[in-house]
Amino acid sequence: ATAVPQSGLGAAAAASGLVLLEAMAMGPDGFVAMAGSRAAAAVARQEEVPVWLVAGVGRVLPAALWTALIGRLAAAGDPWEAEEEVVPIELVDQVVGSEGPVPPDAVSRWATCPAVPELTRTWAAPGSRRPDPGGRARS
After folding, report:
1. Torsion of CA 115, 77, 43, 105, to 10 degrees
2. What pTM was estimated for this model as a whole?
3. Is there a smaller number of Cβ atoms within 10 Å at the N or the C end of the chain?
4. Nearest-10 Cα torsion for 130, 125, 112, 57
């Protein structure tokens, strides 16, 4: 394996026999990975290079947590400035976990993290200000 700078991801993917990506988190329709992963996976798909995703224990989220996570990532700002990005699962051929490589559609049963309400609701950090429905600022 060779570490490749972001500027060379497309060329490296095209020249590879296999593209291996790591999921920070994974949901039913995609995964969060380091910036540049989507480009590497898309180039690999175009060049017919297999794409494998490593999804370690605790990284596969139930749908409610996944939806909350991607909502927070979308609200964080411009995606081209982010250090991580959401990659569509359609770009992946196999997902590697504790059970070995499996097709992406077989991974949903790995989601063992409970969908705790505290992790899915919108909140503001202590001391931050947000408008209330009456138009007044509140902390």
Report:
1. 10
2. 0.79
3. N
4. 130
* Lowest model confidence (mean pLDDT) among 30-39, 106-115, 124-133: 124-133
How far CA 128 is from CA of 1, 37, 48, 73, in Å, comes to 44, 33, 48, 19
β-pairing, 51-54 with 137-138?
unpaired
In the chain, the N- to C-terminal Cα span, in Å, equals: 49
pLDDT score, position 17? 94
pLDDT number for residue 102: 92
Q: Is 90 helix (H, G, I), strand (E, B) or coil?
A: helix
The dihedral region occupied by 130, where left means phi > 0, alpha psi between -120 and 50, and beta the remainder, is beta
DSSP β-ladder status, 94-97 and 100-102: antiparallel
Q: How many CB atoms lie within 10 A of CB 66?
A: 23
